[in-house]
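ligand=fe (ii) ion
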Amino acid sequence: METLTHSVSKQDVDFLPINGTDYVEFYVGNAKQAAHFYQTAFGFEPVAYAGLETGIRDKASFVMQQNKIRIVFTASLNADSPIAEHVKKHGDGVKVVALWVDDATAAFEETVKRGAKPFMKPELQHDENGEVIRSGIFTYGETVHVFVERKNYNGVFLPGYKPYKSNLKTEPIGLKYIDHMVGNVGWNEMNVWVKFYAEVMGFAQLVSFDDKDISTDYTALMSKVMQNGNGRIKFPINEPAEGKKKSQIEEYLDFYNGPGIQHIAIATDDIVAAVSKLQERGIEFLKVPATYYDTILDRVGNIDEELSDLRRLGILVDRDEEGYLLQIFSKPVEDRPTLFYEIIERKGAKSFGKGNFKALFEAIEREQQLRGTL
Ligand code: FE2
């Protein structure tokens, strides 16, 4: 059973108050097709668009929404642009983890003062719906955090975007909000980034476990969780660890060409319904052996869900001191074995499913074997 430790450099006054995740922006090869996939498979509604038809000459962006989750897909319209370079190097992947703040200028100044590398100085944009101020700093790899101040804006997304309506009817599946977003960093870089989130962004370390906890013969990793002051933002960080087999984190770093976002965990109130829909629509998930379910109730005690549903869908269960959680992990959703999704339903538990890591690692190993990357 894991212990939750609230510790390290928690400041008395939060110098970087964050209201929540504002949006996640992917750089992709073809934004129109990515948007279609997220609409039909995950049930995201296309709500806004920017591109040639709206006067934008160099890129196309589709904004997708489901409850509190907003995802943007952006593709370059020409060969020589930072977006095209990003896609060439990393494949489709997350470029921006945008954070919703009340003061984007202060967020920039406070973090840069503490050592952040600037990505975008505070910039005011406006249109007939008001104004937005955004600023940004780099985090691991080429990933950035953009601070979004939108209290004086009531447009559909940002200035420059127009409302967009698809001819296709969206069928949402009850995905509610982003629970956490996990980054993979390089060998010996864990402490650099733990320090970055602690000192530059004022986050605190939440749960600590080392490689002995989560690897034996399996592909090894180390993981630490950084959380902001009000607990709305959780960024676990993974570093590869030496094991007998090639670490899944190393496989990611090879194919992504460096650190980046490994998985986005999305919360739902009804994981059985959401995962049923996702599987019907073709999303592939990691499967643990059927024997996992033979002993699961001995490990986690009573749960509200039917075990037969969990077994049929491959949903995993774990318990901590505060309750339990249900979770499942997709296979990567790009050609490269890079970013994947977690669907999570929390029933009181605030941890991340450590009890499932062994079964999961074995499942990931079987996939790595198929890819010839173990
Ligand atoms: Fe996770």
